[in-house]
């Protein structure tokens, strides 16, 4: 039994983050958002990715602006709070001892070189406020409302080295609406690990963004993988509608 | 501190799998292959991906042929055996009970629909010989030589659900030369999990291949992620040279 | 704030596997067995542990007999099938390449020395039937009924290196009734990993058994840890009653 | 092939934490401490376990005193610093949102009831200094020397939900000298997870302690499991000698 290319032809509109589901040749399982076991998970909603003052704005800013990522993430936060859906944030911090690692992949080297997400110490908040590692200012009311669960920092790209999976399971969550920064790195590694752990995941295609470099459009790369791996890929408008209807 | 786009401009040649390291704007940490703690890891060297009779040939065949993947994997196997470097194979099998899963991502649905990697049972070999789940015939002498470590099957895309990491660690391996099928799915999920586990990884850019669909070149997507996440991306010719020199 | 010893005084009867819950000083959260999301998980229901011909009978036989473990496991299997509750079996196999590990803990050395759970190869069944690695004969109708999910083998003591957690999650299971062999090694490591993964776990205190050596009663040690770590510890009679009532 | 009870007879002296290796019937693989790839890992060196003012002193104090745990841990810290061996600390913290978990095992309920390890927030140090969650005062010079790696908190008992394994691997560590609190819970779960991840582990039998309750000697239970699972169990005196000789 073989599958023809035609059979898996993919929908028009992928590049814009608007995935047309009705015409997709690939299966589109979809994810039914249900009360009590669905949560929103946001990766790295921090200045170094989302603020024009952040250290990576030069490479991700274009995609952040094109996708309207900052406002779309805000919509997800706001809607989740409005419908009382649990929100989990998985941040990225580096401490001085992380700079002593004996080996690193390409982007790890880069992130350390540009002092991305640097903090003085896990038990120190000196210089943290307003730094690149801090939350984007406009998200603070959502994150600091006493309900949002902020996990320990992931130290590579995925939640393998933090408590996200445990925190989700301890709340009875088995479906995740995933968004945040950056699309092909932390967001995608979270997607991949969450499906390995047996979660259903819907990725919000325009509430994320990626680096765009000559010959390397990391955002486009992530869209391909989201579409193949996740249970559903929908844009913010579609997702907000689903959240309100659940 | 900001990085400019120029600073991270990426090398010409990415698309061909020949990564020019000297001109790369992204850091290129590289990986020194050293005797005793480096191994070759091959994902899914099975008929369903690599044989023209396999169920996915219609979508991956073009990339397999363009990259000369079958011969390049053969070169890696042959060289590893010649220089006595450990080889680990992480296969993909599905059993009848896997078809009872309550939810699946897009490609999982597809793989199950086309009966990819299907076996009758973990404790049955009925119908296995020469099936889509079996090794590509020309690799059998390498895999069945009594030295290659075949891990339990991974059940999603990464080694999270098998014993690959443990088997590597039990042999003192902390550097991995990674290749196999398919590039953006199992190979990349192996890369991502191996770096989360603290391994150094060099991906062999043309000893893998990916699905090529209208508007979705999964192989190109994987090259971008390999280049950003791995410690090194080299083609087979470069890798074989390194292996022989180690 | 301090807790007094009195406050955590523990119930009489622990040693017999009958945990008196009403008088227990430690909290006894209990686990409500509910339809659809509870499964039975059995570790190592294999000859090398449970048959008088098995290689460990000399050290575990006494505990197996005292607990009536073989019949109690049979009751759990039978009841699960009768009430249509999913059953998962996590076996233990060693292949020739596992004997090449560069380092091992004490019991790993012992298990390899006595050729426990040895199989010729993952893709060979030569000599398997009736061997120490095979299922205890009386459990075969339950395990081979086409419904029981047999996971890949765990290679140390816990399910970290197999697909048990994924298989449970893919079926919507978040509560586990845990039993099998041996109590303080594979059963307890399964308990510990399952709670790390956010499952609720009830351990069946007399459907397991452990090695009893001079000055080392491994079964008693496991009872202490079950009682402290698990959500509930109940004997087979109590558990069967719960399963039938659910 | 069977093993007789005699063959696995265990050495006298287990109960005192002095493991006689020469007469042990169980294999005693031992662990050679080697420069560059061995580290000391300490679990929970915090007031709630080790200070007479800590919330668990009523149940663990007797064992802490009997083992001379506080001084033995101090010796390990001091020796490691003297011979320039890396030290990793894996702490235990609970935040308000952890108190919202939907289900917990017995000791989790207890720990939450007595407010063990409580902190206001991961991004707040209010009330932390000198609290039950803070380091034992005498260890602060070692832990705050700018070299000790403090991982994210584990949230259950093992390092599954923090970055310990990654941090060790990123420093090239594959052998661990393990000590800390409490013996059968966090220390043992760290042992079990570290061996699942392929580390060699030597447990320091008297640089740990456990709860002692009527009919439940958790410290003795842990000694049995350490002896069966770890590569080596040695007391502080023996371990310090090895560290100095390496």
Automatic annotation (TrEMBL), chains A, B, C, D:
Asked if the keyword Acetylation belongs to this entry, the reply reads no
InterPro entries from the xrefs? Isochorismatase-like_dom, Isochorismatase-like_hydrls, Isochorismatase-like_sf
Q: Where is the Isochorismatase-like domain?
A: 38-227
Q: Which Pfam families match?
A: Isochorismatase
Q: Which Gene Ontology MF annotations are present?
A: hydrolase activity
Which top EC class is named for this enzyme in its record?
A: hydrolase
**SUPFAM superfamilies, per the entry:** Isochorismatase-like hydrolases
The Enzyme Commission number assigned here is 3.-.-.-
Q: Does the keyword Signal apply?
A: yes
The signal peptide, as residue positions, is: 1-24
**UniProt-listed PANTHER family:** ISOCHORISMATASE-LIKE DOMAIN-CONTAINING PROTEIN, PEROXYUREIDOACRYLATE/UREIDOACRYLATE AMIDOHYDROLASE-RELATED
Protein name, as recorded: Isochorismatase family protein YecD
Q: Which organism is it from?
A: BD1-7 clade bacterium
User: Taxonomic lineage of this organism?
Assistant: Bacteria, Pseudomonadati, Pseudomonadota, Gammaproteobacteria, Cellvibrionales
Q: Which gene holds the coding sequence for this protein?
A: yecD
């Amino acid at each position: 039994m073989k599958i023809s290319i035609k059979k898996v032809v993919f929908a028009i509109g992928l590049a814009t983050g608007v995935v047309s589901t009705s015409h997709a040749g690939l299966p589109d399982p979809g994810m039914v958002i249900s009360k009590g076991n669905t949560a929103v998970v946001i990766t790295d909603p921090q200045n170094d990715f989302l603020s024009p003052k952040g250290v990576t704005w030069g490479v991700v800013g274009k995609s952040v602006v094109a996708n309207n990522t900052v406002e779309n993430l805000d919509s997800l936060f706001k809607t989740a709070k409005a419908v009382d859906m649990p929100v989990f944030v998985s941040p990225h911090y580096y401490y001085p001892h992380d700079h002593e690692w004996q080996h690193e992949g390409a982007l790890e080297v880069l992130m350390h070189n540009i002092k991305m997400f640097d903090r003085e110490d896990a038990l120190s908040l000196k210089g943290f406020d307003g730094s690149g590692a801090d939350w984007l200012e406009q998200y603070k009311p959502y994150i600091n409302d006493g309900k949002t669960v902020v996990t320990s920092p992931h130290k590579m790209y995925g939640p393998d080295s933090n408590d996200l999976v445990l925190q989700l399971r301890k709340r009875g969550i088995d479906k995740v609406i995933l968004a945040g920064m950056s699309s092909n790195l932390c967001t995608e590694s979270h997607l991949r690990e969450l499906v390995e752990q047996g979660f259903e995941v819907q990725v919000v295609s325009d509430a994320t963004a990626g680096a765009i470099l000559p010959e390397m459009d990391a955002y486009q790369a992530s869209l391909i993988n989201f579409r193949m791996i996740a249970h559903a890929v929908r844009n913010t408008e579609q997702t907000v509608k689903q959240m309100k209807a659940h």
